[in-house]
Structure formats: structure tokens, C-alpha cells
Amino acid sequence: MLLSLLANRDGRIPLESMKTIGNRANRPRMLRCAEGVSLWLAMLMMLFVHPIYAEARAMDMEQPGQLYLMDGQNAWQQPALILDSDFSVQVSGLLAQTTLTRAFRNTSDRWLEGVFVFPLPDKATVYGLTMTVGEREVVGRIEAKASARQTYERAKAAGQHAATLEQQRPNLFTSRVANIPPGETVRVEIRYQQVLDYRQGEFELRLPTTLTPRYMPGEPVTNTESQWQSGWAVPTTQVPDAGDISPFTVRPSDVDRASHRAAIDLTIDSGLALASVTSPSHRLHVEMDGSRAQVRPEQGKVLMDRDVIVRWRPVAGSEPSAAVFHQQWQGEDYLMAMVLPPESVGPVLRRELSFVIDTSGSMAGDAITQARSALLRGLDTLRPGDTFNVIQFNSQAHALFPAAVPAQGHYLARARRYVQDLQANGGTEMAGALSLAMSMDASADEEQVRQLVFITDGAVGNEAALFDQIRSGLNNRRLFTVGIGSAPNMHFLREAARWGRGEFTAIHNSADVDQALNRLFAAMEAPVLTSLDVRWPDQGQPLTPVPARPGDLFRGTPLIQVVKGLPASGVLHVSGQLPGGRDWHVRLDLANSAPAGGLNRQWARGRIDELIDAASLQRTSPDQDYIVDLSTRHSVISPFTSFVAVEKRKARPEAEVAGSEAIPTLLPAGSQSGMLRYPQTATFGPLFTALGLVGLMFALAIAMLSRRQTL
After folding, report:
1. Do 161 and 32 lie in a common domain?
2. Which of 156, 252, 362, 541 is a good FRET partner for 483, with 20 to 30 A between their CA atoms?
3. How many angstroms separate the CA atoms of 241 and 693, rounded?
4. Within this chain, do residues 113 and 185 fall inside the same structural domain, yes or no?
């Protein structure tokens, strides 16, 4: 009937009519196909909605105040707590004693707890905590970590003023201050000491003020919520404490203009005539008088967005080659010896040199520029007879050549072009880069020295696993580390080089590249002193010096050892082998020891480190009871102890409820904004979006079914 109506007078059906008939005939098939696709999409969307709902639900159940809030216009709300810092540093001999005062000022109208994760020098020995409220001082005591947390939580719940300090990493600490009154300030004073870096005749002091956000490898771990976690990262299989070492990172403009500033007052009493005091990080105001110097930043208070670095050099010819210091503490003697190896030039070694460069997202900005400059400078040090390779890593590792190639023109030209094109993005999967570098086939030249140069900011959270990988897989190679950026992870850089039997250096800015690398590559030519043997006088009792077994010494780097239980009498013998197999030895008369303080703390900190290292090598658990006893006896913090200070009287009224605020750190200078970590409140926005899409899919399916029924 339909065809007869459409036919022309001559009995033929027009082409247009044939198309219409075909479309109508295919329409049911198209509708069925669309309905099937819609239903499958709806099913997939439901599977997508469930984890979003679970995540939103979990976020909604977070403790209030643990996260920063965003307002309705998605604008940043500045923290209610203003942080002010004061570094007072006294340098004497080889030790720097620092009193770091943090002031937490509450600008809100409610009671608050302040939580601040911050760096200290990688070899800092923390030995004191004092809390000041108004005119009242409360001296902290050291307890086992679990006990200190309980003490703090009880005081916090009871409305008492309280403060605690605990170690997350050897260079990363968390301070908590409970019940800060509205409009009031609570001060927390932290006392620590550090051994100065001394290389190539120059002393260096580093004061960290912020940190680069760390990459947390591994799979997320669920059901690990803790009121003591307040960072942006979630625990992972490789970094179970990721929430404790990931403070939020913001721009200076995101906090109050009076916050995150630090005053620095440094007194140098070196005992040696000073030639100069300089800094690659800040302009300094220096007043020198012979062997003493008073140092302050020229600008007054400095922004806490980079490490503060101060260097000083004795007058030429007065550089120390050996020194001994003595202390008596609680009836026991402690000695510290410093011996500098001779400047000895041995035969030029042929090297197989592998450069490993970090191109992860944390290196974006000035850091990748510095890293490229460092690697290009390293290529310039290659000599005929050397071989080399370049490995870059972020989420994955990639080698420029399948194996090391000769340091010749076309290979070097290709490497330079490759390095100049490197950009920073992705994760910091350092383990894969180490595996690739350590699995490369060795050169056929057995006389070549195999060396790795690792160029990175060290922004990782799984340091312990990486150290284990280095010491177990490096074999006959030596690992040298080059720290990049204004706030590198110096703990990783120093310890990776130590386990790799190498040296480390750090580049603060582009102007610092040549000086830092000249020292490192000079040291890489050969260890100056091997087969080191240190013999203290025999007093008929076993001694426990730290470090117990010093490694090889590189050019310009001294041996520093501390021993307990030995009076300042007798002779110390130090011997070793110079390049070429020549013997070398030196004798130090301990009766000439200079008086010093803090040696007992330095010994205790070193002893704790060695006990933890030994347990790691043996793949056993360290003796926590002994470490806690050692830590409390010498009042030095450890991974298993914390400081806690509690004021006895109650401060917060029972009717008042205290909130909590995690104070962010500042984005390191020179970093790009991709490194910012802005927290947000829990929101069901993603859930609502997904539900809306599901609704649209179901609506489309229903509409298609309805239309099919009308056809």
C-alpha cells in the first residue's frame, strides 16, 4: 500500500522515497543499538559512581579542622595561625648550637591546635624543647613516642597548654601545640646542634626553612586514618607514613604577610682568623673581628622559602688539618677528633661514568635548569679513555645509549643535545632509575673505575628502601649525589652517597654550579685515603667510637670521630693508604684537646644511627628499648622518642571546643606552581556530577523506548 502511494504515474518509485523507506526500515535497528549502548554506559557509570561515593564519604568523615577550607568562590582562606621563627646560632669549633623559636599566634576567635611539619639540618641532634605561654615557661621532657603522644592527647583534651616534637625523618620533624587561646601567642623553643660541613678549606652552615613536596611511590593503603596524620598524601605500601611527611605547600601570598618569616642571628667563634663570610642564598650583613664574626641577613627577616646557607673561610695558611676536642659530662669523658687527609694527587684514573638526572615534576622551574647545567658540566670533565652514559628518570627511566660509550666527539655532541632538551614532569620513580643504572653492562676495560653521578632534589618519601637498594646492588661502583634546588632533601643526598661509598654536594642556584661541581669532580678523581685505621689509646676498656668504621676519605673532606669513655691523655694514631699505595699516618696528642660542649649528644646521636643501620643490614628490628634508654639518658630525640611539654594548670574552658589547623610550608623558591598542595574540604561535587550523567543516560534510554512504542 505504501509503495503504491509513493509510485509515480509510470509505476517507478522516486529515489527520495526509497531513501525514506530505507531509513524507516533501519530505524528500529538503530534504536535497539542506541538503547543497548545507553544501558551499557549507564552500567559503567554506576561502577564509576561507587568509588567516587566512597571517596566523598571518606572525605566527609575527616576530622574537622584537619584540612584548610575553600570558600564558595573557590578562594583560598588564609590560616588563622601566624608562624614566626627565630634562629639563634652559636658556632664553636666544629659544632653549631641553634636555638630555634617558633611563635604560633592565633588570629581567630576560637581555640586552636597548631600542627607544623618542618625540616631541620640532616644531621641535627635535637636535645631540648621549651614551651612559653605568656611569662610561664614549661620545659619539655623526652619520652617513648607512644607515651609522649598519650601525654599530649590527655593534656589537649583536658584544656591544658601542651607541645610535642617528634622526628619523622632525620631531617623532618613535626611540632604540635595544643590549646592556643584566641588572639594569643604560644612559643615553642627547640634546641639542636649540628656538625659543620668542612671541605676544601671552607666551613658551611645550612639552615633549612622549607621543603620540596615529596613523591610517595607505592599503592595507596586504605583504613589507615589517624588523627596524627594531617598532610596531603595518603599512606602507601612503600611510604606508610606519607600523611606525616607531606605538609601542605602554598605561595607566600597565600599566608598572612607577617607569617613564615625568620630572623637569623649567627655568631661564629672559629678560633681561626677569618678571611671571608659569604652566602649563595642571601645577602649578609657581617661584622668580623679576628676569629669572630656576627652575621645577619641584610634584609632583616627572611622569607621561609629556601635554605639559608652561610660559608666562611679561614685566612690562607691557617686552615686546620687536625683538631681534638674534649668534654666531661656526668663523670664521663668524650673526645672528638678531626683529621684532614693530605692534598695528594695520584694517577689519573680512567672512568666509566653514568649520569642519572631527575626529570620529575618536582624538578620543574629553576631546578631542571640547574640540573641540566650540572650534567653538561659533568660531560666537560670526561677525558679520552673514559666511557659514559646518560639516564633520565621521572615516572620511568630511559638511557640515552644501550651501554656506556666512549667519551668522543659525536657521542658527546649527541649527549649535550639530549640533555639540553630535557624537561621536568611526572613522578619520581627513583628505584627504577637505580636499577637501570646498576644493571648496565660493565665496560670491557677492567681498569676503569665505575661511578654514578645522581642529580636530584631527593624529593622522595621512601628513602630507607632506596638506601637498601643502593647498598645491595651497587657492587663495585661508587655513587655521588648532586643536590638541586633551594630546599633539597639533604638527608637523602648525604646518606645515598654514604651507602654508595661516594661524596655529595648541593647546588643552591645557577651561580653556585661551578664551585660545587669543581669540588665534587675533584674528589671523584680518586679517594685520597683508603684502608683507614683509627687507633685511640688503649685504656684497658672497650671503646665505642662513632662512626665505628670510617669509610674512604675524599680530597678536602675530613675524618670526624667521637669516642666515649676516654680521658684527654695519650696519643691518637690515624693511618691509611694514599693513591699509588703509599702509606700515610698522623699522631695527635690528646692532652692538647680544646674544651667543647655537646660531644655526649653527638656521640649518642651517632650511636643511635649505627644501631639502626646495623639492624637494617641484618634485616632485623633495632633494639628499641636500648635506643629509648640511650635517647632519654642523653636527652636526644630518636625515631622512637619524642619531646613533650605540658602546663599543669587548665587553660581552655570546658564550654570551648578546640579546633586544629595544619600550618603549611612555603613553595621553595624557583619551583613552579604545579608543586603547590592546596587542601580542600570534602565535597560531593564529583558524586553529583556522576549521578547527573547517569540520570541523563537513563532519560535518553527511556525516551528512546517511548519513541519506539509510538512508531
Report:
1. no
2. 252
3. 37
4. yes
